[in-house]
Design brief:
The chain is α+β, with helices and mostly antiparallel strands and 344 residues long. It is built from 14 helices and 15 strands.
Amino acid sequence: MSDDAAVQPPRRRKRKARRIVLWAVLAVIVVALLGGGAFVANLAHTYDTKTQKIVDPFPNETVRPVKPTAGAPSEAVNILLLGSDTRGAALDLAEEGKPSDQRSDTMLWVHIPADRKHIYLMSIMRDTWVDIPGSGDAKINAAMAFGGVPLVVQTLEGLFKTRIDHVVIADFDGFKAITDSLGGVVVDVPIAFSSHTADLTFKAGPQKLDGDQALAFVRERYAFVDGDYQRVRDQQIFLKAVMSTVMTPATMTNPIKVNNLVNEVAPYLSVDKGLDGATVGALALSLHNVRGPDVVSFTLPNLGTGTSSDGQSIVVPDYDAITAIGTALGKDQLGAYLTQAKLG
């Protein structure tokens, strides 16, 4: 504890007490809803019927890491979030595990530790040059084209030696839907730019974005000197802003807002069959103490850009970092690693 904190214990205790009471009330409300059933049952039904199901998102069990059965690592949850420009025949093929021209341009590993005190968002650069099982060295986003979602999972599980529990594919239009359902989201835009995908200009600094603005914000890369690096950072900024908006009593205790959020966003999501309404509800309840500052985002470290043997511009992987992060994920110690590595 810092000296400043030590000289002001009454104020800190009062703030902490208010937070405890606030989230205790929220927990009681959620539990009551789960117990009473009507609203939550309807919410789960909406989620289950409106989300699309990924038929077979995982590779053969024989090539997968084993999920720990005891201790904190067994209770941690790893979710792979893939971003797609649009839903179409190519994405349908990818979800069926078949080759297509679909590439996963946005790739996010979401780690939820066993203690449920944080949510970690790890972005993986789409041009990271890795070994894709059965296809050899290529940009990691090509795994989707070579073998659909199962090959993406197999590639990432092979890199980090850690099992992925669930897969979510989100259409970029879902960014627009979630923003509008929340009545707009305040985003701190780090760099002023003009969009190449829409007739919009963004000034630097905090501003409230509507759905169209949010979609343009998360898709832009051509306006920046470092291209996709800044796009990844902007996507992290946006997701943290959304979570900070959602994880407030004003949203979480308002049945109408929650219902609208699920109703509007679910159609833009494809999920594995195990990530059903009941599972999502239980996970949300376990995270009731998490607030915006507890969401930690970072980009998988790399060694900069380079050129592949066949002349492609690539992101050079940092295998030391990959190994260290894989070990931290496997032991459910990602937070400690990020602190030591000064990431996030």
